[in-house]
Amino acid sequence: METNGNQKKIETLTYIVKGLMQDLPYHNFSHALDVYSATNTLASLGGISDDEKFLLDTAALLHDVIVVPGAGDNEEKSAELARKYLPSLGYSEAQAGRVYSIILATKMPQRPKDLLEQTICDADLDNLGRDDFFELGEKVREELKAPKSTEWCRNQLKFLKSHEYHTEAARKLRNPGKQQNIQKLEEMLQEGKC
């Protein structure tokens, strides 16, 4: 494996993605970097090889490169862009095809088929178990132009309660924080603060 060559591809891709992504409240370049960072953490904890991590990093950067808020085909469009464009950056057809599949796994409801797909799904929803859950949730609400309401809080609570991380690494790392966010949402609803 040519680690330096792969690192150069990731650096080039990061620059390209920064230029391509819209500046939406949630689905923006910061989100791409956030998922990239989370995939790195989960890949390290999950024992993912360097070759597989390279594909995972690529998918993380590109998974939401095309987003139209409320559209149902964002993942497909982002995956297709990756499959068509990556060979021009030196990726093989097989690598581009694998990145395509990894990106498609992030479509809701998530149905990952293997460890790489499970890892990107968990990285994409890493914030559910973090301290910035409410801040980022507000950005999602703003992006969807949903009204601030009790219903929004109830839907967030329902989603958090039904969600399960796919990898052992994510469960260990984020389930405690997710439980705290569930508890905080329940308290906010009981106290009428939603």
Topology:
Blueprint: H1 3-20, H2 29-45, H3 50-62, H4 74-85, H5 93-104, H6 115-124, H7 133-144, H8 150-162, H9 168-190
Helix pairs in contact: 1-3, 2-3, 2-6, 3-5, 3-6, 4-5, 8-9
A few lines on this structure:
This protein has one domain (3-190): Catalytic domain of cyclic nucleotide phosphodiesterase 4b2b, CATH 1.10.1300.
Order of helices and strands: HHHHHHHHH
Pairing-aware structural class of the strands and helices?
A: mainly alpha
Query: What value does the average pLDDT take?
Result: 95
Largest sheet: none
Please report the distance between the alpha carbons of the first and last residues: 51 Å
Q: Into how many domains do the coordinates divide?
A: 1
CATH class: Mainly Alpha
CATH superfamily: 3'5'-cyclic nucleotide phosphodiesterase, catalytic domain
Q: How helix-rich are the residues, as a percent range?
A: 55-70%
Please tally the helical runs, counting DSSP H or I stretches of 4 or more residues: 9
CATH topology: Catalytic domain of cyclic nucleotide phosphodiesterase 4b2b
Overall 3D form: globular
The number of strands is 0
By CATH, the architecture is named Orthogonal Bundle
Strand content: under 5%
